[in-house]
Write a structure and sequence with these properties.
Elements (H helix, E strand, L loop, with lengths): L1 H30 L1 E2 L1 H7 L7 H13 L5 E3 L4 E3 L15 H16 L3 H19 L18 H16 L1 E8 L6 E14 L2 E8 L5 E5 L3 E9 L11 H4 L17
Antiparallel strand pairs: 1-3, 2-3, 4-5, 4-8, 5-6, 6-7
């Protein structure tokens, strides 16, 4: 009888611990941070001693929630890209949709970009953490590599240069012959054409804007501020493309067919 009672108590204790871990994970997944006192309340305790809290942190780490302690705020935070979502549930299209939303947000401008931009970056980190090995590609008629860490580095640099009206420097690989060269442009806008993202800007020494595919860029750098003489605030991508098919713009007049 004693053995049966001991076994029942052990099972109940294990279930209670599992339930506590689950509630801690849910809280961390939403709030991204927690204090030792908050953890104690979630676990139904008045306080947690150091050894008990250490065991719980080890259990959380097994789920990928490796807590980092900030002595100034006395809070524990989870890694930026951590999420409860399982890697097998990752749909590559989610990150592609997020990219398009970021481009739309950029075109909305202030104050939306400043308010929602950091949240979009956090969502991207969480999606990347769900399945960092996922390989996203463009549509079948454009089989170039798609969303990866380098792509998001290019995207963030373009966004900043456009917002702050700065010169954007980068290395570019041409699609026609594969040659690589350094480029400097005054960027005005980002454009999505059939799932491929381009930055639209005037190249150094040029007059007419060109399109540069983000997946062919590397080593982006945001340089000096653009002077009033070098930046034309009246230049609009929508106006340039109003008679174009896709990204192909021409100075010729449209003809009725």
């Amino acid at each position: 009888m004693k053995n049966l009672t001991a076994s029942t108590n052990a099972e109940a204790k294990a279930r209670s611990k599992a339930s506590g871990i689950r509630h801690l994970l849910i809280r961390l997944n939403i709030e991204r941070r927690i204090t030792k006192q908050q953890a104690a309340r979630i676990l139904g305790r008045q306080q947690l001693n150091d050894s008990t809290w250490k065991r719980y942190k080890k259990e959380l780490a097994a789920w990928g929630a490796r807590l980092r302690y900030d002595p100034k705020t006395k809070t524990h935070t989870v890694p930026k890209g951590w999420t409860l979502g399982r890697a097998t549930e990752m749909d590559p299209r989610k990150r592609e949709i997020l990219v398009r939303l970021r481009i739309d947000l950029l075109r909305m401008g202030s104050p939306f970009m400043e308010t929602l931009g950091p949240q979009f970056e956090q969502w991207e980190s969480q999606l990347a953490g769900m399945d960092p090995a996922v390989k996203e590609r463009l549509h079948v008629w454009q089989p170039q590599p798609r969303v990866n860490a380098a792509f998001y580095e290019n995207l963030s640099a373009c966004e900043r240069a456009i917002q702050e009206r700065r010169i954007l420097g980068f290395t570019y690989k041409r699609s026609s012959d594969g040659t690589v060269s350094a480029r400097h442009i005054v960027p005005y806008d980002l454009f999505d054409n059939n799932g491929r993202i381009y930055v639209w800007g005037v190249e150094e020494g040029g007059e007419r804007p060109k399109f540069f595919a983000l997946d062919r860029m590397s080593d982006p750098t945001v340089l000096d501020e653009v002077t009033a003489k070098g930046y034309d605030a009246e230049r609009k991508l929508d106006d340039t493309l109003r008679h174009s098919f896709g990204i192909f713009a021409t100075s010729g007049k449209p003809r009725k067919v």
